[in-house]
Specification:
single chain, 24 helices, Four Helix Bundle (Hemerythrin (Met), subunit A), 2 strands, Alpha-catenin/vinculin-like_sf, Alpha-catulin, mainly alpha, CTNNAL1, Vinculin/catenin, two-stranded antiparallel sheet, cytoplasm
Length: 763
Amino acid sequence: MATSPCSSSGVSSSSSSGLGADAGLEIRTRSVEQTLVPLVSQITTLINHKDKPKRSDKTLQAIQRVGQAVNLAVGRFVTVGEAIANENHELKEEMSVACIEARRAGETIAQLTDVASLDHPESDSHITIFTDKTGVVKAARLLLSSVTKVLVLGDRIVIKQIITSRNKVLATMEQLEKVSSFQEFVQIFSQFGNEMVEFAHLTGDRQNDLKDEKKKARMAASRAVLEKCTMMLLTASKTCLRHPDCESARINKDGVFHRMRLALEQVIEIVTDSRPNGENEMAPISIYSGIKDFKNKVEGLRENLYFLSKESLSTMLEVILEHTEDFTDSAYTSHEHREHILELSKQAKMELEQLVSVWMQAQNKKTKDLMEDLEVAILKTCQCMNELKREVHSAATSLAADLLKYHTDHMVLKALKITGVEGNLEAVAEYTCKLSEQKEQLVEMCRLLRHVSGTEPLEITCIHAEDTFQVTGPQIISAAETLALHPSSKIAKENLEVFCEAWESQLSDMSLLLREINDVFEGRRGEKRVYLSLPRPGKHNANLKAIKPVKLDTEEQAKIAKLGLELHLLTSDVDSETEKWEDQENEIVQHGQGMSSMAYSMYLFTRGEGLLKTTQDLFHQAEIFATEGTKLASSLHAFSDQVHDDDKPLLLLEAEKLISMCKQLQTTARASAQGKSATFTKVDACILKTRNVMTLLCQLLPLCCKLLRKNKAGNGCLKPAPPWKEDRLQTGTNAHTPERRAETFGIKSLENHVTNMTFLESK
């Protein structure tokens, strides 16, 4: 199947948004945003230009440049649209019409803004933007309308490709369910593997391009299910073919097929932004989100005493306290946590009663004393909610830490494998009961963690983990029962191993998820960690006050977006490397984590987000980043004294490279830049040099780990891990980074399944 040139440029229409009178457009993907926002910005500049009696040559040239830029951008855009039309005949006519309209509108705008060479641009003898403002507005509307059509049509093609790919996978799955011989199974599974690889590529592109972090997380969860279930489907089907009369083997296989179908359906729901039978998606409600909304309402009383009713506030608190019952009713919550949560719930009700009382009085009589009393009541209510939030977080994370530590030895799984091979049905039944108990504990852990996860993507990850334990537990049991009934079956043994690995993998992922939840709670990650060292008024040299703070505009953000994304990926790589160190207090690790945090805040700046608000903030952050890099180089020099002479030159060489790069970054960050263009060039250079330092850091951290192990140094070492787990670390560490998901979603493993088909019958 030919891939559409705009395979990651999807959007869909929305009447609620207004880019023009004739077209509404809800932008759902980053690539479309990067294409469209500069165009809209340029058109808006033209339409909103101020009518001045006298116009300088500079103004006229600027207007002409903008008009030409719009026309050129439209030309490039239309070229892509025409290529799509040629590849998709069913939409060729609609796409061609939209492209012709867009090109015509772009040319009209270029003609109307061709004013720089005219002696009298206001003259009626030559129609321009100054004499025909209405014409420019009409051309702009036509342009936005036609561009909208091209984007929507392009998106329909992308969605159609994914649906077609899904349908092919489903059709082949139906054939796989019905096969009765190994030879037929080998042939069909080979086709299935190729189709899954294609589906993985298409959905990976789509996931990377989604703007909505919640949808990204849902897509990542569905694709993770498909990745793990592919291997399960292979071994479960083989077991069923080898033992066709075994009921537990059939149950095991049916469970895999059912889960894969659900995951495929969810991908299509996300891609088409629809729900079956038109039902609305119910957003998961957590204690964290409830407390956040409640506090926002309470604090809003400072600005407006009349914007909500006391009943609505009371209802919000009731909902939060109902959710705390998930903790107080849980058999796994400690007595101390339960008592504290109940006490804080009671206190929250009392604080709200006091707040409402003062609030009602202030509505009737707004005196200074009453407003002061209201402020005290607001502070006390918010403080109580913060303490409640802290208590439920402590209850959930301490339970999770204890359970993950307790189950880290996988004793029940090992026992099931041993008793299964022995054919000991009684012992298998005993250990399946223990696994069911373990499953209930882990499911409860996921439910409680969801309440305190802190972000919607992490909430969705908790829900996915809960589903995984719910489904995988019974599948392990049916696989173990099959092995106990056929203890000499190599294929049944292999099948149980695959399901046990999936369980172990999910436990490993939970450790990483727990760390992320704690990071969000402790502020080490905003939606990820953010490290700030901003200049404070009066605390730095005087010349900072003379520098006017500047923010990047949307066009500049679009230009620097790719560099920012590269920086984002590098921070994930560095985080992955630092998490492999057992001694998190090691100086090398701490400097590396600090640099990663600062680099992440610089990445957020490229998107117009985070706490670095102006270019001056960015330059100061770059200086601090370079200083931290220099400190890391000093730590590397100290560490070099501990390594063997053979390894020392390489380490020192890398340390010197780091010092040189940090000095270059400091020089760039401190250099003077006057004017918009020079400032943007300086921003670009700072981000580029930061990226280069992070690239070197990605090489340094594993090198230091290797040398630590080799020399058995006492101040830090890498955790030993079996080979299969190293692969999981690469995927799991960045489980919420969509770019990584696209790379690691079972493409290689699927290709391996297809390659190894010839060995199926020998097992």
